[in-house]
Design brief:
single chain, 332 residues, alpha+beta, Arc Repressor Mutant, subunit A, BirA Bifunctional Protein, domain 2, SH3 type barrels, 3 domains, seven-stranded mixed beta sheet, repressor, nucleotide-binding, ATP-binding, Transcriptional_repressor_C, ligase
């Protein structure tokens, strides 16, 4: 990491508490002259899209404190069994993509059970090559590497299993009006709250490795999410008090993921199907399926035992596999 970038992060960590810090204290903390403080503040604010407030006689602060990622706080929110399921927990200030990083390292032999979280992603990814907007310090960007003796094809239902357990966890935390949009979007009041990206690699008959990428909008502001091309929501809207527990939520999410991965390895998709269906609020609604250049209209008729989407069309019921289609509710 460059010296300039280290200085940015040192300044952010100092200001994260939301308290006023004098220019003199900032200069001493950064090892710069008093005259260089304002320039350092401006550069950091611009680089990381942060609002820094200046009050004469009091100093500088972030108007909204940041709960920065804390490895020990995350682990403390997990049970001993879940912690034992993790080989390593990495926290990055900035990374291109937590999932891309784990996929690269998996190819070099990284062991199963490594989790990576980042304050910011510079090349966050969604499904079908879309960008995942990843501003600094206000959301959760989390990826987990897991190895299976199974063939890659046997992991085809994993996105539904993971989506179901994440929705169920947030419901247990008190968030209502959650729904799942096949195959892997989590919605709150029909606006996107979280997304999953699952990447699998391995031998045709096994073994294989899987990287689960999870992005959850926690406290993202409208200006930060202005480039998102679909309606979105945040945990702060759905349950404000939970949005202020970033590390605790990260720990509970990791626990849910470890448990789901272990169970899927033993039992496959079947124990997750009914849970997914409880959050399937589009069931029975008219929908459009986008399949390459084709648009198929019909009625969402639920999911099959293998996780396929069933669409009721004039030609009858037709199954579609995850990874091939994108689902959109028809406009009224």
């Amino acid at each position: 990491m460059s010296q300039a970038m280290e200085r940015h992060f040192a300044l952010i960590r100092m200001l994260a508490d939301g308290q006023f810090h004098s220019g003199e204290a900032i200069a001493e903390h950064l090892g710069v002259t008093r005259a260089a403080v304002w320039k350092a503040l401006r550069r950091t604010a611009d680089q990381f899209d942060l609002e820094i407030e200046s009050v004469r006689g009091r100093g500088y602060r972030l108007p909204v404190p940041l709960e920065l990622l804390d490895r020990e706080a995350i682990l403390a929110a997990m049970s001993g069994r879940a912690r034992a399921g993790l080989t390593r927990l990495e926290i990055q200030d900035q990374i291109d993509s937590t999932s891309a990083y784990l996929m690269r390292e998996a190819a070099l032999g990284m062991p199963s059970g490594v989790a990576c979280l980042a304050e910011r992603q510079t090349a966050g990814r969604g499904r079908r090559g879309r960008v995942w907007v990843s501003p600094f310090g206000v959301n959760l960007y989390l990826s987990l590497l897991w190895r299976f003796p199974l063939a890659p094809a046997a992991l085809g239902g994993m996105s539904l299993a993971v989506g179901a357990v994440i929705a169920d966890l947030l419901r247990s935390e008190g968030i209502e009006d959650l729904s799942l949009k096949w195959p892997n979007d989590l919605l709150w009041r029909r606006r996107k709250l979280a997304g999953l990206l699952l990447e699998v690699s391995g031998e045709s008959q096994g073994p294989s490795h899987l990287v689960i990428g999870l992005g959850i909008n926690l406290r993202m502001q409208p200006t930060q999410g202005a480039s998102i091309e679909q309606p979105w929501a945040s945990i702060e809207e759905a349950m404000p008090e939970l949005s202020r527990c970033r590390n605790v939520l990260a720990g509970r999410l990791l626990e849910a993921l470890v448990s789901a991965l272990e169970r899927y390895g033993r039992e496959g998709l079947s124990p997750f199907i009914d849970l997914w269906r409880r959050f399937d609020r589009l069931h029975g609604e008219p929908v459009r399926l986008i399949l390459g250049d084709r648009v198929i209209q019909g009625t969402h008729a639920g999911i099959a035992a293998d996780g396929s989407l069933i669409l009721e069309t004039p030609e009858g019921r037709v199954p579609f596999q995850a990874g091939e289609v994108s689902l959109r509710a028809q406009e009224s």
